[in-house]
């Protein structure tokens, strides 16, 4: 998997999905559904999932995709996976608590090797890649 391409694609998709989430967050009341496991799902979850899933499948058609909202519908093949939680913190989102994010990770041979967290409210995107470090936007993070 080309991690430079993955970083660019996931950042672009997270920004787009983040805009969709914020439109719903700042809009009028929205419908809340319940998934089979009794957890809530909103239009924001579904909109972000649709944007990210379509973009990742177009950019990386040979990589299996697992998303929280469609986990059962994706065929799991190979040893490379992209794992997506399109709205991590749905309960916070529902209650107006400003702590929720988009999470996307790459897993190869059973090991998470890269990930992006995007916070739509602040516009901050964190990216980390095994062996290369972590960034906030384009600024390298140091410990």
Task: Give me some keywords for this one.
143 residues; alpha+beta; 3 helices; globular
SSE pattern, N- to C-terminal:
HEEHEEHEEEEE
Structural class: alpha+beta
**Low-confidence residue ranges:** none
How would you state the average pLDDT, rounded? 89
Give me the Rg, rounded: 15 Å
Give the proportion of residues in helices: 25-40%
What is the strand content? 25-35%
Strand order within the widest beta sheet? 3-4-5-6-7-8-9
Main sheet attributes: strand count, strand direction, barrel closure: 7 strands, mixed
Question: What is the CA–CA distance across the termini?
Answer: 27 Å
Number of strands: 9
Number of helices, counting only DSSP H or I runs of 4 residues or more? 3
Identify the overall geometry.
globular
What is this structure's SSE topology?
Elements: H1 3-25, E1 32-34, E2 40-42, H2 43-59, E3 64-67, E4 80-88, H3 90-94, E5 101-108, E6 111-119, E7 124-129, E8 133-136, E9 139-141
Parallel strand pairs: 3-4
Antiparallel strand pairs: 1-2, 4-5, 5-6, 6-7, 7-8, 8-9
Helix pairs in contact: 1-2
